[in-house]
Amino acid sequence: MNLIRGFQTTFKHVLEEPVTIQYPEEMRPFKERFKGRHELKRYDNGLEKCIGCALCAAACPADAIWVEAAENTDEERFSPGERYAKTYEINMLRCIFCGYCEDACPTEAIVLTREHRLSFTDRRDAIYTKEMLIEAPTEGVEATPQQVEPGKYTRSIPDMEDAK
Amino acid sequence: MGVTSKLGNLGVVTTTLDQAVNWARTGAMWPLLFGLACCAIEYMSTQCSHYDLSRFGMELNRATPRQADLLIVSGRVTRKMAPVVRQLYDQMADPKWVISMGDCASCGGVYNNYAVVQGVDEIIPVDVYVAGCPPRPEQLLHGILTLHQKVQSETIADWA
Fold it and tell me: Does A7 touch chain B (CB under 8 A)?
């Protein structure tokens, strides 16, 4: 009798659907708050949001971010205001994906996306440069550096209507 | 070096043998039963039903390094643990591979201090680095697939 009762549990599980998710083909939905690879954002007019202030590097608990700023000119303008990030590197193997950089950023330039594929065969590949991190400009918009009329973008946080 | 220098270019023989050997190596790569820190928890859940490493022939966690092919360094390696990791690696039979799972194993992560080895590649050679703190099971699986790609690109001319 006990034998039958014991096997009842076994056979109940035989008929169940398998729970395995076939990873590379299908994915389990990630939690809302999952943080993955970073992305540097642009304004709608193609200018970079990052102004090279390096507050993200200061906030980073793992020292994963390296920012080097340079001066903007109206002939070669990367971002609104005086400075832009000439070098922006994140070491993905150092980053702990805490999102403090996102919180520290005054212009909401750096955002953690949901990209999770981050494995490297060489540790040098793990250093993501600015070219890899920055998002592509929307279609029909000129990429940076742009030539703009003097005196238009004097503030780091521009007075654009409904700045995005 | 090796087979090709002794016997000349064997062409179709070595390439077919490469395929067979690499198929066998990627099809049953037994990991060592070895966990160091919180990454090991994610590694355990990778082994469980939802992610199921046995789909890649890795369900058998060998408790002895003699029977293991893959060392997954899951967690920060302290200076006190470093000789143990090195010994485990030395005891594994060739061919052997190492995955450095997570930030701490890869470069010390946030533990930039005297007690933690700043990257396990200071003591053993690493094949694949997996970023994340800790990496999700998906990220570890992606690392394993990256390692499979790397193994598949190996050829007999390099090691025989």
Answer: no
- B50 close contact with A: CB closer than 8 A: yes
Of A34, A117, A126, the CB nearest to B129: A126
pLDDT digits (tens, 9 = 90+) for A123-140: 899 999 999 999 988 888
Per-residue model confidence as pLDDT tens digits over A4-14: 988 998 888 88
B98 CB within 8 Å of a chain A CB: no
**Which is nearest to A51 in space by CA: A23, A76, A30, A81?**
A81
Contacts with B138 from chain A: Cβ below 8 Å? 23, 27-28, 116
Looking at 3.40.50.11060, 3.40.50.2300, 3.30.70.3270, 1.10.3720.10, the CATH number of the domain A31-137 comes to 3.30.70.3270
Whether this model's pTM surpasses 0.90: no
Q: What is the ipTM of this complex?
A: 0.83
Q: Pull the structure tokens for residue A90.
A: 């994140």
| Helices B38-47 and B137-152: angle between axes, nearest 10 degrees | 80
